[in-house]
Write a structure and sequence with these properties.
single chain, mainly beta, 8-stranded mixed beta sheet, globular
Length: 785
């Protein structure tokens, strides 16, 4: 590949071309500083490209690391006073390049290249810019926290590094095109769009990832090894970057929104629409320095243009969280990355005003956020006030020490959390993590405090891997700025796994894992009490040539009765009296799991997850036959049309074969990319829940009632709920900040047909219960301060 680059240089008259081969260890790059008179058209024909540094000599990283990449890739790099310029020449002799004209951040099933820039050269955080062969963009941030990657769980072969958070967007330019031998892309990243050091001469970390869907391979420019606690610390360097001019950029994004909501008239004989009054708001983003950014928003529109996908909770004790999607909170979100979801910005429902400052000063990451929320989210008819401070100090490649403070005031009530956390990387493959926090919650004059803590060790070897952790969260730990799915418990994890890498074989890699999990009531963990739930999982996962994946698991579990779930449960005896549900025996379980995925072909890809066996019937506390299934498929008949279908199914039966509950959520997403910036999209989701009348299945067979106020009891009766939601959207999205959204959405409820109670997704009658029209206009004004 080095010879290829030299021959190309000679053909273009590049006698002074600088070629850096990753496989040869030439990973310290000094890109030239040149003038910026270029046009971003996807063709690398300007004279500057003939003087650019050439990064080549890629290696395979996944599924097998260390071997030479099967595909040749050349990355051209130079910079001007105001921007970094990158050219991509990706060669593919097979002619099977997969490229679609799609929306931003939906390119990761295509052939694509990712540029990871560690602008603070800390080996722990990187800004990520990704392009597919047409130059369609994907971007985000990678922040190595030590809480992900490295294997473990049902898909421990596929997990090799911490993933990129693609939620935030940057303003940059890219265009590309297919060539007879692959594809070519031209990229320009303005310095005012990113944060970096203030030094006159700088060194940045850089690595390049190329993904090839026909083989399922990830290829990297540096010879990156899987046997490492840090992926980013194995990056190369861009040295000698001088006099980078970002100025003091000022982005102003005014917004105008309008929503009309329809519902049935009070008389039930018509349909009324309310709203439609335009509302103004906006965001401001100011670059105080190259490494600090100030954001502010007033009366923003935080209506989501895409509803959250339906999720199931396997355990009723676990709450479900949803990802942040709102642009103001997404900008600089990596600076608020804290363990155990101690910062969960969706707690701020509809801010009247919010501001934050993010960046990095002297090796310390800074995130400070303040917000005044709307009264609709208050318990006291007040404006809730939120405050967040997140600091994280670098201690070396991959290592850090952090602090988090959060506060919420709602009239006389308040909530505070103070925590510290850290990660220490030792001997390249070993890492130690810890965090601890205390909460103080005052509500209606009652003050409670509670702890949260964790200690962990991970060995991320090439073959042998270890993951140990012990954590606890007190029953009185409360956070109104963060999110905890369950309190009052302690958990222990002991996981050992081994990976066989088999380059050139049909089965390219195989992993086996034995994982032990224990859950205690928190006070039992502290005082040496009995374990509540114990699990032993055997997981086997394989990656096959061509991008196929498959896994099987055997899950042996034993659950103890949890009285916290059944405090309101009572049984009605034959003589009409009510008695408590009572203590119940432990539940032994044995489940089996299979999962798999196809390669990402040009027109189709699919994944499936299927679990069956005996597991908890939490509704009646008994061991029950269960089925959990998840199916996902994407069909792309053309470069512009993409059809996605997913189906989630959860079913619990009794030992006699009768059904306790069924939940099913099919979701259809159809999008057509008219041009690079204009998209038509339809999302249709049907959510069905059916549940039988409950009874004491393990002992008395008596019917279950719920205790209410003043000694009342309500039968846990059968029900069926079915809702259909359709959302249609026309969007114009030329860059982050400038958007036009015009949408219509409607919710339909499914009446229960007389005498019918079956799982039938088709042929049902739906009644419209609400609908609405939505308009959003915003425009990005980019100014220099």
């Amino acid at each position: 590949m080095i010879l290829t680059a030299l021959m190309l240089a000679a053909a273009l008259g590049q006698s002074d071309t600088l070629v850096y081969s990753g496989r040869a260890g030439q990973t310290v790059v000094r890109p030239p500083r040149l003038s910026a008179a270029t046009v971003i058209d996807g063709v690398l024909d300007e004279p500057q490209w003939r003087s650019a540094a050439v990064l080549t000599g890629f290696s395979q990283y996944s599924p097998v690391d260390g071997v030479a990449a099967a595909d040749s890739t050349e990355i051209l790099v130079w910079y001007s006073p105001n921007a970094l310029h990158i050219g991509v020449r990706a060669f593919d002799a097979s002619g099977a390049v997969h490229a679609t004209l799609t929306n931003r951040d939906q390119i990761f099933g295509d052939d694509h290249v990712q540029i990871l820039l560690s602008t603070f050269n800390d080996g722990r955080q990187a800004t990520v810019f990704a392009v597919n062969p047409f130059g369609i963009q994907g971007d985000g941030a990678q922040n190595e926290s030590g809480r992900g990657g490295g294997g473990g769980g049902f898909n421990n072969t596929a997990q090799t590094r911490e993933g990129t958070d693609i939620s935030q967007d940057f303003v940059w330019e890219s265009k590309g095109h297919l060539t007879p031998g692959g594809y070519e892309v031209e990229i320009q990243i303005p310095f005012k769009s990113i944060r970096f050091q203030q030094a006159k001469t700088q060194t940045w970390g850089i690595n390049i990832i190329r993904y090839v869907p026909r083989s399922g391979e990830e290829q990297t420019w540096t010879m990156t090894r899987r046997a490492a606690a840090s992926f980013l610390s194995q990056s190369g360097k861009l040295e000698g970057l001088t006099e980078l001019d970002a100025g003091h950029p000022l982005d102003v994004v005014p917004t105008l929104t309008s929503r009309v909501v329809g519902s049935s008239a009070a008389s039930g004989t018509g349909w009324n629409y309310d709203g439609g009054k335009p509302e103004m708001g906006g965001n401001i983003r100011y670059g105080v320095t190259p490494n600090l950014t100030l954001n502010a928003t007033a009366n923003p529109d935080f209506s989501q243009v895409e509803s959250d996908a339906g999720q199931f909770s396997f355990d009723p004790r676990q709450a479900i969280g949803f990802p942040e999607r709102r642009p103001f909170f997404l900008d600089g979100i990596e600076q608020f990355d804290a363990p155990q979801n101690m910062i969960y910005t969706r707690r701020i429902v509809q801010p009247v005003f919010a501001t934050k400052i993010t960046g990095k000063v002297g090796g310390t990451q800074i995130g400070v956020l303040g917000a005044v929320d709307d009264k609709t989210s208050s318990r006291n008819d007040e404006h809730p006030i939120f405050g967040v401070v997140r600091l994280s100090r670098d201690l070396g490649p991959g290592s850090r020490l952090g602090m988090v403070w959060t506060e919420q005031h709602d009239g006389p009530d308040n909530n505070r959390v103070l925590g510290i956390d850290g990660r220490i990387v030792a001997s390249r493959i070993n890492s130690f993590t810890f965090w601890g926090a205390m909460s103080r919650n005052s509500r209606a004059g009652v003050v409670t405090t509670g702890p949260l803590w964790n200690v962990g060790y991970r060995r991320n070897g090439r073959a042998f891997r270890i993951n140990y952790s012990l954590n606890g969260i007190g029953e009185d730990f409360r956070t109104l700025v963060g999110f905890n799915s369950r309190v009052g418990i302690g958990n222990a994890t002991v996981s050992h796994s081994y990976v066989w890498q088999r380059p050139g074989r049909t089965l390219e890699s195989l992993s086996a894992e034995l994982a032990l999990y224990g859950t205690w009531v928190y006070q039992d963990l502290i005082h040496g009490g009995p374990i509540q739930d114990r699990k032993m999982h055997f997981n086997f996962n394989g990656r096959f040539k061509g991008g196929w994946g498959a896994g099987v698991s055997v899950l042996d579990e034993n659950f103890g009765y949890d009285p916290s779930i059944y405090g309101s449960y009572f049984l009605r005896t034959n003589d009409g009296n009510f008695i408590p549900f009572g203590d119940q025996a432990r539940i032994p379980n044995r489940d089996y799991l299979v999962q798999g995925n196809t390669p990402s072909w040009k027109t189709f890809q699919m994944n499936a997850f299927f679990l069956w066996g005996h597991d908890e019937n939490f509704y009646e506390w008994s061991s029950a036959p269960i089925i959990f299934a998840t199916l996902g498929a994407t069909y792309q008949p053309t470069e512009q049309l993409r059809v996605g279908l997913s189906y989630n199914h959860q079913q619990v039966n009794r030992r006699d074969g009768s059904r306790v509950s069924v939940q099913a959520v099919p979701r259809l997403r159809v999008q057509y990319q008219v041009t690079r910036n204009i998209q038509l999209r339809l999302i249709s989701q049907y959510a069905l829940e059916i549940r039988d009348s409950l009874h004491d299945d393990t002992r008395t067979n008596l019917p279950i009632y719920y205790a209410g106020p003043l000694g009342t009891f309500t039968r846990a009766a059968a029900f069926r709920n079915g809702n259909l939601r359709n959302d249609f959207l026309v969007s114009y999205f030329p860059n982050p900040g400038t958007v036009v959204y015009v949408g219509y959405g409607a919710t339909h409820a499914e009446p229960v047909p007389e005498g019918k109670d079956g799982l039938n997704l088709f042929g049902r009658t739906f009644t419209r219960t609400s609908d609405g029209f939505f308009l959003k206009l915003s425009y990005l004004f980019r100014m220099r301060g």
